[in-house]
Design goal:
The complex is a heterodimer of chains A (134) and B (127). With 134 residues, chain A is mostly helical. Chain A is built from six helices and no strands. In chain A, helix 2 crosses helix 4, helix 4 runs antiparallel to helix 5 and helix 5 crosses helix 6. The relative contact order of chain A is 0.09. Chain B is an all-alpha fold and 127 residues long. Chain B has five helices and no strands. The chains are: A mainly alpha (134), B mainly alpha (127). The interface between A and B is large, with 34 and 40 residues.
Chain lengths: 134, 127
């Protein structure tokens, strides 16, 4: 993991353009999502601890805190960044749009920031209450 | 060069699984954050998994997500200059990790639908 981070750091220093930066971000968000799958499956696996699901409920209740809401929000940002970049790669590969990378990147970032703002009320109840009051 | 050696099959399956994940994650996100009120409980998940369509959806999402994630990790491993032995060992480690994750995930879902359908025989099948 540290070897990968060091290599990606060198790549950005030597070849610091938007394409390399988005490649590195795609790789890092992908690795973060694979790492997330392990605790996610472990948490769902709590369903097997007892017949009435008390262990599962206790685990889910422990996640219902502001800190975990923030972690969930960061997870969503990782998913969005990885997903939108993946779509960009697919469009470039299948429709021969490699030359349109700058335009596709702008569209990707536009969608990313819009989704980032729209997702705020979903993950932060205080923000939702503020919007309702406003 | 055949497809196995060139990696084109892995590349194509990575794109295909990505497209399924775009749809699958959107549905998963809507089901968790919009269709169910927080906090998520065993009973709420059980109510959703009463439908065989949801069970099929959750299982396929798990298998496709694990495949896509670990195929991506394999892509990262190929970027490093590993010896053939290191590469082979990493490959088998990734495959073993994938099998463990899929089996664990499938078994984790069993209590929800077994409780929902009243079939308690599968509960005997504990890890």
């Amino acid at each position: 993991m540290f070897k990968a981070l060091k290599t990606y750091g060198q790549e950005i220093r030597l070849n610091g353009n938007s394409g390399m930066l988005s490649f590195v971000l795609h790789r890092l968000t992908g690795l973060a999502l694979v790492a997330y799958l392990i605790p996610h499956l472990y948490s769902v696996g709590m369903s097997r601890r007892d017949a009435d699901g008390q262990a599962f409920n206790a685990t889910m209740a422990a996640y219902n805190t502001p800190l975990f809401h923030l972690a969930e929000y960061l997870l969503l940002l990782c998913v969005l960044m990885h997903l939108l970049h993946g779509l960009k790669i697919t469009i470039a590969d299948f429709f021969l749009k490699t030359r349109d990378h700058p335009l596709l990147l702008k569209m990707e970032l536009g969608c990313f920031f819009a989704a980032t703002i729209f997702a705020l009320p979903v993950f932060f109840p205080a923000w939702r209450r503020f919007l309702t009051w406003w | 060069m055949d497809r196995r050696k060139s990696g084109s099959l892995g590349w194509f399956l990575q794109r295909l699984s990505a497209l399924y994940l775009v749809f699958g994650l959107a549905v998963h996100f809507l089901a968790i954050h919009f269709l169910v009120e927080r906090p998520i409980t065993f009973e709420k998940v059980q109510a959703r998994l009463f439908s065989p369509a949801w069970i099929f959806f959750d299982w396929t999402l798990l298998v496709v997500a694990v495949f896509h994630g670990l195929n991506g990790v394999w892509g990262v491993v190929l970027d490093w200059r590993l010896t053939p032995l290191q590469r082979r060992l990493s490959g088998w480690l990734i495959v073993a990790g994938g099998v463990v994750m899929v089996v664990w995930g499938l078994m984790a879902l069993v209590p929800f639908y077994s409780a929902a359908t009243g079939d308690t025989t599968v509960l005997l099948f504990r890890p």
